Amino acid sequence: AFDVSVPTWGFCGSPLVVGDRLLMQVAQDPGLIALDVWTGKLLWKTSKPEAAYSSLMLDLNPNARSNETAASDQDTVIGLSAKGYFAVRARDGKMIWQRQPELDGDFGVPCPVVTSFGVVFCGENNGLLIRDHGKTELRTLDDTLLADSHTPVAIGNDLLVAYEGLHRIDLTSGKRLWSVAENRITKYASVIASDTIAWVFTEDAEWLSVDAGRGTLLDRRMLSENSIRTLTHPAVAGDRIIVRVGDEIRCWKL
Q: If both were cysteines, with which of 149, 151, 198, 214 could 210 make a disulfide (CB 3.0 to 4.6 Å apart)?
């Protein structure tokens, strides 16, 4: 156990398993730890970076993650801190790079999005940023999409972002390919998407289906007859979709 203070909104990040290691952000000193997945033994810890509320992600660059059971020097973990963004080596916690955004004060809730082009970060002050593979600096994709709690979804060469609507963004140019449902997606939203369709679950318990290619609204339905806030991410199991709505777990056949 570690004697640390609970962050303002609690411990929110999910643990990440890389080979034989379970990595998690704790708080500050330690900021990041790795445990043996079989024994729970502490393998390493770092005093920084101070944890935010995001979850760690494994970098999917071509040199990362072999079929080895042990974490290797090529396994790089991306995360958000209270001050910015970072990457560490899973095997020993060695810091690979750290970057701070131009503006301070992002909550640090959305997870990094690892794409074939690079790693995307987003927040309510700095908008969409990408660190291209092989580059050292952050590049702005769009400084007007200020998602503070929704993690964007990568589909092909593009990114779907929920912020005052659902928007499809080209990852190379930052061009907005289409926008839809600007008056229906105004707060928190969860997105599940493929190349052809995107489902958006809003805070107001509405389920929107969008044509991911053309950006047209196909269908919308309410998850509840009452005014219930829906803040949890749905789960897909076979041909079922499961959503927590208020005090209930509800299931729909697709």
A: 198
